[in-house]
Design goal:
The structure is a single chain. The protein is α/β, with parallel strands linked by helices. It has two domains: 167 residues, Rossmann fold (3-Layer(aba) Sandwich); 67 residues, no CATH class. It contains eight helices and ten strands. The chain has a six-stranded mixed sheet with strand order 6-7-8-3-9-10, with helices on both faces. The chain has a four-stranded antiparallel sheet with strand order 2-1-4-5, with helices on one face. Strand 4 and strand 5 form a beta hairpin. Helix 3 runs parallel beside helix 5. The longest helix is centred in the C-terminal third of the chain and has 16 residues. The N and C termini lie far apart (57 Å).
Length: 262
Amino acid sequence: MNETFFNPAVIEMTGAGISSLRDTSLTVVEKVDWSVAPGDFWVVAGPQQSGKSDFLMTAAGLLLPARGSCRVFGCETDAFGEAQLAERLRVGFVFAGGKLFSHLTVAENVALPLRYQKDLSPDESARAVEVLLELLELTPFADVRPSTLAASWCQRAALARALILKPELLLLDGPLVGLGARPRQWLVQFLDALQHGHDWFGGRPMTLVATTDDLPAWRQGRRKFAVLHEKCFTVAGGWGEVAGSANPALKELLAEPSGATM
């Protein structure tokens, strides 16, 4: 008898309403039906104030949907408590602007998830951080506090903190905001390497979701696109479908100059 193996969605939203983090009584996106398969790389685009951050936090299980359901690794996010810690640790999140702790050094920021979630000796923790900082070219800034660093290095440090527990799903909120052309190129290429399976993760492909208001910066690579506009979530498809779309929000975002700092 042939046995069919079912590979469940990493993220699945069904009729989900997205609340505003600032005012949970306010719905910023309506009726989201969306499925993210293992190994997908999604870019969710939208103009400013379109609810991108709220959408991403809901997808990560950090914000409950106003209605409908959101499942992450098959677990309803409204039940994402201590009993589901193993599932929560499979998710890495990079906040807009990095949200690093200014009183800690870069190395100390990156080590925080290990301190709280892993039973490692100080030497084991320091070694894991050292290897990851080297991978992201952050070694010279290990003992530096974020307030003295350029935005591009703070973004890398925030990425390192999200990756230190080796998540299977990585969500990034506006990761290119404030970056010049060269740091943008490095980051996009590094994220592509994560999707394809980076050696530091044992070659295991990672599932990624990033938000943006600059579509052209993401045109290369094997990605899927969706757009948030006027409380609607619309799947656009691959880059070919995006480039030829008549969707007014997509056309507006495509007209924005790529590579400009924001």
